[in-house]
């Protein structure tokens, strides 16, 4: 292989670009660790578990959130090859990361746990890879476990992928057994990247990250031509031009090179601090004699769940906006727009791909920008048709129309559940209580079954996954994809304090579930809001109809303490006087809701207590 010292580029026929796709906990990051060790790009003393997972949150939770790319040298016979590997996340909320990684590859290693078999998310990622016409390399991991049953699961994979059971490679990412043979197989079956070395430069941006000292670092995959340092480049969607200060490869630390040629994956730094200049899916080309046709970009992700993010301290609003700008650069699936709330002040309405995405985003904002945030209860996007025929989109309960409504449409998703066949009854019962419609059922083997349901998204964004896991003793796996919308009977439940609605506590619910939500919130708020000098009613209402009520009793001063004996009329006179004062106070007094009460009532745990209909 030509080295960079010779100022030459790697020939495309020696390059292999591949990614690893799998379910959570099937050993993607461990396999990536072994590959880093075997190829020698990380020294033994520098090695640590989950080497490519750079964020503290990833290491603490043991999950991959960001796809990471790394360049590996590998020799087959006398020929030196260059492997570009992308380690992808496994959770359904980060499918967008996986879809972007697949665009930069020619092959995908389908990794399956030899003790658990194929899971719902593995299937979903496999179908994504097949749509992109990638070469699939099926691999069974964890064959050293006592509970492993490789023969059974190899037959299951062969049935789904359409290969022979003998073609399924068997490795142990933990011990390194079979990983060398796997890399040989990658070189053998992965097609070399195709591109025109003499054409104008075209490279796809598949990721970017913000560095405080160096500005925006952009990760690219070169398709045509070559890109070199000190060259002026143009971003084709924004038209912005920059000079490349540094270009290089990630192996696994950034290493500057003399440029990137056809099929190579690497990074470039222009020193730009404006985070909007580097858009994921954009095409990079040369400023002089550049390409005219951009590469086909990525499909824009559609947010599935909306939630409001507000700083606890209102003065941190500009910092929150800056932090969201930087985070969106690194997480292209995040969308946000400013909004205000009478109760919480200024904040942002953010769109997420799921509940874990919401949780991780909030965690990252708090850690990376040092912010204290409140997130409102998550909800989905509704389409409302009014009586006069006009349509409106509702992402926030406060936008719900006040007049008569002709039709309400809510988003639905296709849910795929894989589980041992003994749990079919429990799963069906759970799905029916969540307004699910059975779409079909298939046996993958005698003991494993695949159930397909169509369900409203609002029913699964809270605690559906937890309920599914508890009913199947942790054996079920879940995947879902959007499937349009359906008409539903939905109502807006307002929570009122002393007759005044508090917009932060309002929610949109199915009419059968509205009463239980109202009861839950009024009871919760009665415990959280401190007692005032006057009695405060907490009411849940649908329109003008009150469906639940709790009272916070007034703090009373003992005005009779100074009355020893004497006539009852004296005591009554004092009590009447106190009663008048309380009534007057009630007309002018405001209910003070402490910040902690908002945090407690709006924490996502509120959804976990959601009563089942």
Automatic annotation (TrEMBL):
Transmembrane residue ranges: none
Keywords from the UniProt entry: Cell membrane, Elongation factor, GTP-binding, Hydrolase, Membrane, Nucleotide-binding, Protein biosynthesis
SUPFAM superfamilies: EF-G C-terminal domain-like (SSF54980), P-loop containing nucleoside triphosphate hydrolases (SSF52540), Translation proteins (SSF50447)
UniProt subcellular location: Cell membrane
Similarity remark: Belongs to the TRAFAC class translation factor GTPase superfamily. Classic translation factor GTPase family. LepA subfamily. Belongs to the GTP-binding elongation factor family. LepA subfamily.
Reaction catalysed by this enzyme: GTP + H2O = GDP + phosphate + H(+)
Gene that specifies this protein: lepA
Described function: Required for accurate and efficient protein synthesis under certain stress conditions. May act as a fidelity factor of the translation reaction, by catalyzing a one-codon backward translocation of tRNAs on improperly translocated ribosomes. Back-translocation proceeds from a post-translocation (POST) complex to a pre-translocation (PRE) complex, thus giving elongation factor G a second chance to translocate the tRNAs correctly. Binds to ribosomes in a GTP-dependent manner.
PANTHER family found in the cross-reference section: TRANSLATION FACTOR GUF1 HOMOLOG, CHLOROPLASTIC, TRANSLATION FACTOR GUF1-RELATED
Keyword Zinc-finger recorded: no
InterPro entries: EF-4, EFG_III/V, EFG_V-like, EFTu-like_2, G_TR_CS, LepA_C_sf, LepA_CTD, LepA_IV
An example Gene Ontology molecular-function term: ribosome binding
One Pfam family cited in the UniProt record for this chain: LepA_C
Record GO cellular component, one term: plasma membrane
Residues that bind GTP: 25-30, 141-144
Name recorded for this polypeptide: Elongation factor 4
Recorded topology in the membrane: Peripheral membrane protein
Predominant location category: membrane
Location of the Tr-type G domain: 13-194
GO biological process: positive regulation of translation
EC number: 3.6.5.n1
